[in-house]
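Dear support,

We are seeing what looks like truncated structure output for some complexes. This example has four components. We would appreciate it if you could run it in full and send us the complete token output so we can diff it against ours.
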Amino acid sequence: MTSTDMHAGVLDDLGRRIADGRLPEGAVLTLSGIEKDCEASRTVAREAVRVLETLGMVASRRRVGITVQPRSSWDAFSPRLIDWNLAGPFRQRQLEALAELRVAAEPMAAHLAARRADSRQCAELRRLADRLVDLGGRGLGDSDDYLEADVAFHDLLLTASGNPQLTALARPVRAVLEGRNRLGLTPPLPVEGTLEEHMRVAIAVADGDAEAAERCSRSHMRTVWGEVSRTDG
Amino acid sequence: MTSTDMHAGVLDDLGRRIADGRLPEGAVLTLSGIEKDCEASRTVAREAVRVLETLGMVASRRRVGITVQPRSSWDAFSPRLIDWNLAGPFRQRQLEALAELRVAAEPMAAHLAARRADSRQCAELRRLADRLVDLGGRGLGDSDDYLEADVAFHDLLLTASGNPQLTALARPVRAVLEGRNRLGLTPPLPVEGTLEEHMRVAIAVADGDAEAAERCSRSHMRTVWGEVSRTDG
DNA sequence: CCGACTTCAAAGGTACTACTTTTCGCGCGT
DNA sequence: ACGCGCGAAAAGTAGTACCTTTGAAGTCGG
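Here is the complete output from our reference environment:
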């Protein structure tokens, strides 16, 4: 355990154990225990605990120890926590939650992008839409190239919104798209309408037509939505 | 600086200085420097740096020091960062970004809440809507009671969505509503339609009518939207 | 027998020191 | 001018000693 920082290793170990429920709410740890478990020094153990504390995953009290907190107090948006969830038994739930968030956020991002995107971004957006149409039309909707372009398109849309929070959703959205792809849920020939929707969003943004961009994006999200809600309660 | 943990103090100090730009992107710190600046021990300084590192605000490299990272790599959703922004010169921008996010998220939350809220939540939602109508109708739209009920309403709506990410937006939404209130932007008599919208959302959720809930919430968000976009570029 | 008060020890919080590892940057030699 | 290696700077890790808080057991008095 000398290649990467010990700190990262210990943090990851604890984070995963808490995120996947092996350390359930209310479980109590001690620094000494962590030192021993992870074969790390006090320094390293403390730093890992501090980080988990800022994520709301544990609370540390004198004389008591380090207590695992209820999920409701965890920082649901922390990239780290999302990764831990994606690596554990809650992977599916996490992907669904992120997918729902995406459906909500992208139309707003499109709206804002139409008002704020610079010309370079507009051009790039149209280029990516073109590429999607090209690849999709040739039955390569399940290829890595298509996925890459799809991720880039939605990433750029969020970025162009000029809203830091929306921009920060780019990483989760990538996870959603890649997750869907890895399960073989993307057909070689994209679902009817998908390609046109991307294109219409790109054009609306380039035209600075916020309402149209939002409408088209929402339409696209509706197309995507069906697949998610199939398995829903 | 003994009342609260030293750690929190140092973290807050550094976090604020970075968030408000006093330590701009590319600035380089050293642990020794931090120890001296904040009059803290190495231990405390290290822990604070670790936390900032997990927030993406700094990166620490051997032989180089601790470098402030570009804003784009910061964890925009971290409650801590949001607080630091709200306390600094970017308060307004932060509130606007959160308001945009809220406009995007609430209709989805309403949709999901209609499908997932339990009966207790439905009842409470209607009770809060009733209270808003009561207070608003009596010209108390700018009272603390109204604000409290308003926050509780939207908080509950997000919580009832059953989506951890949407639920986590409750805190920012509170900040948005309180921020608006503190600036005296809330009139004694709520804007035409506001009260009915709350009520319609509550009823739709209670009826389990997801589409109606989403539609009504979106309508409400449109009402709210006008005020935000006034000052926008 | 019960309640309040005292004492004690467990656990985290802080400080300090010593040592290790990485890596930047300079200078030397080719 | 180019590359190679040496040295120092700074973070990383370890370990120890001591402080502070606080839950809980035990004790005393009513």
